[in-house]
Amino acid sequence: MPQPDEPLVGGWAPFTTLDFPGRLAATFFLRGCPLRCRYCHNADLQTRQGASPLRWSEALAWLDQRRGLLDGVVLSGGEPTMDRCLEQAIRDVRSLGFEVALHTAGVSPKRLGRVLPLLQWVGLDIKAPFIDYARITGSEASGAQARVALAMLRESGVSYEVRTTVHPALLDAQALQTLAHDLRASGVGRWVLQPFCGRGCVDPALSAENISIEMSLVTHLRRIIPEISVHANDC
């Protein structure tokens, strides 16, 4: 079992071309998340307890053998900023010569601020209009945290992407329009929409079908934020 003084790895993907734009990377999913988003497809990683496919030392040994084959490493979750060993994990990976990306919902702006200087890219999940965050996440503080994290990220100069998972039962056209205005007011010029994927979702009210995003809606939202892309649904 992983020790308390090392990251808790809940899963990993040996190769991805999607999680770190422009890089060939491996992704490690760290355990723990305080949010309870209904559409979550990694609900088994919400708890800090559970099975781990490998120790962090084993992950580093594996990465050491991939020097020259991979460009980067993605730390995802769960919510990786919940792991108190995140900063050391990033330093470990960088010491092997890899670039590092972070996937986060911004729930710990303080820890995010400490690691931002060590990162090459951040994927920031913005889940709803800031005033309506708790309806999606189950956390009253999460909207304010996400707003602070976004401002911190924009000021850092680190390359980033803001993305939002879309399910019409949770975010209808009006909510997405409100969110678009929130993001524009925060200085966001590029926004990625991700259609809900039912794979792994434990909410039966949402998991019955996969979702596509109507291009007419995207066209409307582009009047607010011109640069919007839609990730393909790979379910």
From TrEMBL:
Q: Which Gene3D superfamilies match?
A: Aldolase class I
Cite the Pfam families for this sequence: Radical_SAM
Looking up InterPro entries in the UniProt record yields: Aldolase_TIM (IPR013785), NrdG2 (IPR012840), Radical_SAM_PqqE_MftC-like (IPR050377), rSAM (IPR007197), rSAM_sf (IPR058240)
Taking every annotated instance into account, which residue ranges of this chain make up the domain Radical SAM core? 29-177
Q: List, separated by semicolons, the cofactors it needs.
A: [4Fe-4S] cluster
The record ties this protein, via PANTHER family, to: GLYCYL-RADICAL ENZYME ACTIVATING ENZYME MJ1227-RELATED, RADICAL SAM DOMAIN PROTEIN
Q: What is this protein called?
A: Anaerobic ribonucleoside-triphosphate reductase activating protein
Q: Which organism is it from?
A: Acidiphilium iwatense
The organism that produces this protein has a lineage beginning with: Bacteria, Pseudomonadati, Pseudomonadota, Alphaproteobacteria, Acetobacterales
